[in-house]
Amino acid sequence: MLGVLITVLVQSSSTSTSILVGLVAAGAPVSRVIPMVLGANIGTSVTNTVVAITQMGDKEQFRRAFSCATVHDMFNWLSVIVFTTAECSTHFLENITNYMVDNMNFNSSVSNPDILKTITKPLINLIVQ
């Protein structure tokens, strides 16, 4: 619910997700933040519906805008239902994030590691070989 509220207030799921990533970096448990990130996805449904409603002046434009907003809403809701079910039954999202972080090779002698290079280097090595 908190993710929905943050996204509705700032009208940006990217902003609310970035705030939540910062919380995890500061020590918040991933298991508590996953539902908030999923809630941020639901929050975008409110934002796009508000935008669609602003098109009420022209019936045809409103029909198209509301149709598009509804497709977006269904995609978000179905994604959240699938990922919530997977997370509640298997803790898949928490486990996969822990696995990803555990397998990153961070160089502790560097004060600010180049995260993009750390992520892309294995893929680049596969392509270049």
Task: Describe this entry's structure for a reader.
By secondary structure, this protein is an all-alpha fold. The protein has helices at 2-10, 13-25, 30-53, 59-90, 92-102, 115-128. Helix 2 packs antiparallel against helix 3 (30-53). The chain starts with a helix and ends with a helix. The relative contact order is 0.10.
Largest sheet: none
The quaternary structure here is single chain
What spatial form do the alpha-carbon principal axes imply?
A: elongated
> Which strand-content bin applies to the residues?
under 5%
Secondary structure class reads: mainly alpha
Calculate the mean pLDDT score and round it. 85
Poorly predicted segments: none
Cα-to-Cα separation, first versus last residue = 47 Å
Number of helices: 6
Roughly how many Å is the radius of gyration? 19 Å
How much helix is in the residues?
over 70%
Q: How many beta strands in the DSSP annotation?
A: 0
- Provide the succession of SSEs: HHHHHH
